[in-house]
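Issue 218. Parser rejects a valid record. Input:
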Amino acid sequence: MLKTVDVGLMANHIPAHKGVISRLEVYSRHVNNQQLMVIFQKQIMMMKNHVQAMNQLLNPNQNNQVMLPPIPQNIPLYTDQTKGSIGIEDREMALDSHFTANAMANENFMSATNMKNTHVKRAHVEMGLQQLDIAGQLEILAQQQGWLTHPNATMMEQNESMNHLNKSNQGYMNMQNNSYQTFNQRNH
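Output the parser choked on:
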C-alpha cells in the first residue's frame, strides 16, 4: 500500500501532465521547424508514458514492478499539421517547452524527496531525468537556431570570482582551525 503523500503527489501530477500534453499537441500542429516537431513528439510520448506509469503505481491491484519506458527515439513525423498561426512563433514554443521540461524535472525531483515508497520515489527521479534530457535537446536546438544564448564569462570575471572564493575559503579555514584548537585545549 502506498502512503497518502505518494498518492496525493501523483494525483496532482497527472492532471498537470495532461495539461502540458494538450499544449504540446497544439504546438505540434503549428510548429514549422521539423527538429522541434520531433522533440515535441518525444516529449508528448514520454509524458503519456509518465501518466501511464503513475496510473499503474496508483492502482492498488498492481502487483508487478512498474517500469518506466525510455524516451521514444524513432518518432514518425506528425502529419496532422494545421495551417495558420496560433500567434506563437517556433522560438516561443521551444522556450516554453524548455522551461516546462525543466520545471517538471524539478517538480519530479522535489516530489521524490517527499515520497515514501522506494519504487514510486525512483520512478519520479527517472521521470525527472527524462524531463532534463528533453530540456537538454530543446536547449541545444534553441542555441543552434539562435533562440537562446549563454554568454561566456571573461577571464577577468572568472578570476575575480576565484579570488573572492579563495578569500572566503581562507576565512573559513581559519575559523575551523581556531575551533579545532579550542576543542583540543578543552579536552586535554
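Fixed in the parser; the record now loads. Residues 153-188 form one domain.
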